[in-house]
Amino acid sequence: MVIQRIQTLYLIIAIALMTAFFFMPFGYTQFTDAVTGSTVEEPLKGIMFIGLIIPISVCLLTLALAIFTFKSPSIQKLMVIISALLVGACIGVVIYILSGGLIDENPEYTTRTLWGGGGLLLIATWCALGAAYHGISADQRLLRSYDRIR
């Protein structure tokens, strides 16, 4: 009996995407000087916000545990579900930050946030976790069918 372990590949992809999200800008803060009209953009990265560092770190930990709990598919599925919930929390924090979480009341310049492409890494991570969950479920069905044949 051969069980395909494609979900391990999906979990490794999810770890790579979450690690990349730490350093890729998911948005930009644009500062416009009221006097000169010049604008400066600063990237917003996941490593800059404690509200993202903690869930991303815990998510990376649960993803690593999910890889090493391959002998128990039910625990592996639980770790994937917890990771998906943490990714959902990160998506919520990113939307909050970019929708108006950064407000500055300095009259000398105006501040606004712009969307960047780094937030799509979280969506891709969610897709990889869904594929991993599907692979684990397929392995569980395969094991149950082999148990019935005996």
Molecular structure report:
By secondary structure, the chain is of the alpha+beta class. It is built from four helices and three strands, in the order H-E-E-H-H-E-H. Strands 2-1-3 form a three-stranded antiparallel beta sheet. A hairpin with a 5-residue loop joins strand 1 and strand 2. The radius of gyration is 20 Å and the shape is rod-shaped. It starts with 5 loop residues before the first helix and ends with a helix. The mean pLDDT is 87.
Q: What is the topology?
A:
Blueprint: H1 6-23, E1 25-33, E2 39-45, H2 50-68, H3 73-101, E3 109-115, H4 120-149
Antiparallel strand pairs: 1-2, 1-3
Helix pairs in contact: 1-2, 1-4, 2-3, 3-4
Compact overview of the structure:
The protein has 150 residues and is α+β, with helices and mostly antiparallel strands. Helix content is 64%, strand content 15%. Helix 1 (6-23) runs antiparallel to helix 2 (50-68).
Write a concise keyword list for the protein shown above.
alpha+beta, 3 strands, 150 residues
Order of helices and strands: HEEHHEH
Class by alpha and beta content: alpha+beta
N-to-C terminal Cα separation, in Å?
13 Å
Radius of gyration from the alpha-carbon trace, in angstroms:
20 Å
Q: In total, how many beta strands?
A: 3
Counting DSSP H or I runs of 4 or more residues, the number of helices is 4
